[in-house]
Amino acid sequence: MRRFQLLGVCLGLCSLVTSLPRRTPPKIAVLGRPNVGKSTIVNRMTGKFNGGGLVHDEPGVTRDRTYGLGFWGAHEFMVVDTGGLVFDDDPTQTFMPQIRQQASLALAEAAVAVMVVDGQMGCTPLDADIADFLRKQKVPTVLAVNKCESTKNGDLLAADFWQLGIGTPWPVSGIHGTGMGDLMDAVVEPLPPNADESELEEDEPLKVAIIGKPNVGKSSLLNRLAGEERAIVSDIAGTTRDVIDQQVTAHGRRYIFLDTAGVRRAARVSKGVEQMMVQRSLKAARRSDVCLLVLDATETVSDQETTLANFIAESGRACVVVVNKWDAIAEKDDKLYRTSKQFLQNKLPSVSWAQQLFVSAKTGLKTQQIYNAIGKAVEKHRTRISTAVLNEVLEDAVRWQRPPSTSTGRQGSVYYCAQVSTRPPTIVIFCNDPDLFGQSYRRYLESQLRKSLGFEGTPIRLLFRARRAQRGAPGEQA
C-alpha cells in the first residue's frame, strides 16, 4: 500500500463558522455598490458557498453587517459583509443612509477592505465614488472584479478597473470560485501573523458558558459549582437578565463561569431587554472555551435546544451536555441511562461528540464530575495530532471506503492531510476536487478520525482543498 506523501506547508484553505472565536481575529470588510455579488464573494471567502449567506439578485438584500469566520493558509480572520453602497440618496431606498453608516463602522474596525465590482458591467461612476471613499479611510484595499466567469476574458474585463487607482484588479468568479486563490493571497498579505499557540498562557482561567433555554436550572448549577449563592434562583423563567461572571477555583484550576440568560425561540423574544439578553448570552458562548449545554431531564429536547447545539458546534466551542433535574426522574436504572444517552445523541447530532452528564443541581448529584468533563473537553479542544498519524488514519479510512463516483464517472481522490490549528482541531484534506466529496462522505471521514483519535468533547473541522496529484500518491489513479 502506498503511503500518503507528506508536505510540510499547507496553503490556501477556507471555512465558515458563524461566530467570534475566543480571541477575535482581524476583520476584512467587503464593500461595493448594490448587486455586484458581495455576499457570494463573502460565501467563497468563508467556505459558506452553497448553503449559507443571503444571496439574491435584488439590490440591497444585505442591509446590516453580517460576519463569517474564514481561514486562508495560516491566517484566521472575520469577514464582514456590508450592504450595497449608494451615495446619491434615492427616496425609495429607505435603508441607504443606514447602510453607509454600517459600511463606515465596518471599515473602522477592519484590517483590510475588499471592494467588489461587476466585471460584466464595467467601471461605473458609483464604483469611482466608492473608491474615493475607500481612499479616505486609509485601510489597505484589495479590488475584486467579480463575474469574470471566463478565465480567457477575465484579465480583459478587469483591466477596465485600473482607472480606480486602488491597486491591482483581481478577476474572480464568486459563482465558480475561479481566481479566488490569487485574491485571497492578496487579501491576507497585509494581515498580522496569528499569535503562536505557545504564547497562550497555560494558567489563564478557563471560560465556561452555561447556556440553555429558560428555567432549566442554569443558575442553580452555577451556585452548586461555585459553592455559594451567586445567581438568583427562581421558578420564574427569565430570572437571569444578564451574563453573570463567577470566578471559581476548583481542583487546582481557575474557572470563569458565564451564567447566561435563557435563550428562547426568536418568535418569543420580545423587543428591548430580553432581546439584548439573548444577544449577550450568545456572545458569552462565543467568548468561552467550553459551553455547558444544560437540559431539563423532565422535558423532551426542544427545537431551540437543537438550535443551541448547532450554534455551539458551528462556533467551534468545546461542549459538555448537562442533563439537570435527574433527581426528579423516578425508577432510574442503567437501561434508562443508556437509552437517554442514545436519545440525546439522536436529537442533538451536531454535538453527539460531547460528553453527557446526568446531574442534579438541587441535590448535588454528580455535579462535581462536570469539572472533570470540562478538563477533558479542553484537552481535546487543544489537541494537535502529528501529520504522520493523521495520514495513517486517513489512508485506512479511504481504503475501507473509497469516495463515491459521480454520474459522469469522476471520483474523488485524497492525497494527504495535515492539522493546521487547534481550538478546535482543524484538519486540511488535500484532494483532486472538493466538490466531489459530499456531506455523507465527509461525515464518514470525521467519524473514522474520531474513532481512531478520540476528540470527545470538541468539534473538529475538516477543510477540503484542491491540489494537483503528487506522483506516486495513493489518490492517483493507475
Automatic annotation (TrEMBL):
Keywords: GTP-binding, Nucleotide-binding, Repeat, Ribosome biogenesis, Signal. Residues 26-195, 206-382 form the EngA-type G domain. One of its GO terms (molecular function) is ribosome binding. Residues 1-19 form the signal peptide. SUPFAM superfamilies: P-loop containing nucleoside triphosphate hydrolases (SSF52540). GO terms for biological process: ribosome biogenesis. The keyword Repeat applies. The keyword Nucleotide-binding applies. InterPro entries: AAA+_ATPase, G_ENGA, GTP-bd, GTPase_Der, KH_dom-like, KH_dom-like_a/b, P-loop_NTPase, Small_GTP-bd. It holds the Pfam family MMR_HSR1. PANTHER family: GTPASE DER. GTPase that plays an essential role in the late steps of ribosome biogenesis. NCBIfam families: GTPase_EngA, small_GTP. HAMAP family: GTPase_Der. Belongs to the TRAFAC class TrmE-Era-EngA-EngB-Septin-like GTPase superfamily. EngA (Der) GTPase family. This is GTPase Der. It comes from Chrysotila carterae (Marine alga).
